[in-house]
Design brief:
67% helix; globular; single chain; 434 Repressor (Amino-terminal Domain); 16 helices; mainly alpha; 3 domains
């Protein structure tokens, strides 16, 4: 069989597992080193046990190999880049793919791309929104996966608004649990902050004020390096809403003004517009009459 050692090494590191712990009871250290360098192969039954420790089936592993060897950009990367930059053309490239020959991950992406375009207010040629049965398909696929890869978590973080309240509550809780598998990875803190902060803002904007408060407490407990200014700012923006919702309106308004100044100084004009609209809407939700 083909030697997949170097790719297994990538997956092991992504999982956050140390080599000696990962192969304990399977193969000796020297053989593990040679295997991951691509110098030797494993017996098939041992290889299956390795995949089990990665929480992958043979089919899922081969799908990952196929994606890695494909010269085209992975659909997940295309979709994530398109949504993060609000680039509709990139998202349309995913949405317009036929689903017949795609694997489950990519079928899910096609449905999410269609939904994102349908709910994007700036999209000119309106895309049909996914219906309840299609949304349920995506939900079932994610919630029933024993282990999520990083792109599952990032995509959920970007598309929280596409699911109904009960679905997103379950998905966020599962993503939060799954993300801890990647604690030792670079970028872990940003993914965690993105996931929780997006859910907090969604909860507040939809009037689920208690849920927003509960998750803000979790967000506030995350240790964020001082060098990561933008992540610090994301937490402060969520704090603006939390303070206002808990009756500390004066402190909320002061912090809001500070956040506006920082966003303006960093030239984050879109983010500045978004937070202004969201905060004005939020005040109405909690019963304020300051804005008429």
């Amino acid at each position: 069989m083909e030697n997949y050692g170097p790719f297994i090494r990538e997956l092991r590191i992504a999982q956050g597992s140390l080599q000696k712990d990962f192969y304990d009871g399977l193969i000796v250290k020297s053989f593990a080193i040679r295997f991951e360098k691509g110098e030797v192969m494993l017996q098939f039954d041992t290889f299956i046990k390795v995949l089990e420790r990665l929480n992958l089936t043979v089919t899922e592993f081969l799908n990952l190999i196929e994606k890695k060897s494909n010269t085209k950009e992975a659909l997940s990367e295309l979709f994530i880049r398109g949504v993060r930059t609000n680039n509709e053309r990139l998202v349309e490239r995913v949405a317009n793919l036929g689903k017949d020959k795609l694997n489950k991950d990519d079928k899910m992406l096609v449905l999410l791309a269609k939904a994102w375009l349908a709910y994007n207010p700036s999209h000119i040629q309106k895309q049909r929104a996914i219906d309840d049965s299609e949304r349920q398909l995506v939900f079932d696929y994610l919630i029933n996966r024993p282990t999520w890869l990083l792109f599952h978590i990032e995509i959920l973080s970007l598309t929280t608004h596409l699911f109904n309240g009960e679905q997103i509550d379950q998905l966020i809780n599962k993503a939060f649990q799954q993300l801890h598998h990647y604690e030792k990875m670079a970028g872990y803190t940003q993914l965690l902050v993105d996931l929780i902060s997006n859910y907090i803002m969604l909860s507040y904007e939809e009037g689920a004020l208690q849920i927003g408060n509960q998750w803000f407490v979790k967000l506030q407990s995350i240790a964020i390096p001082k060098s990561q200014i933008y992540l610090q700012l994301v937490v402060q923006v969520c704090e603006v809403f939390y303070l206002y919702n808990t009756g500390k309106t004066g402190a909320s308004e002061k912090l809001f003004a500070d956040c506006q100044s920082v966003l303006s100084g960093l030239d984050y004009q879109k983010e500045l517009r978004d937070i202004n609209v969201s905060f004005k809407r939020f005040k109405k939700i909690v019963g304020s009459k300051e804005f008429k």
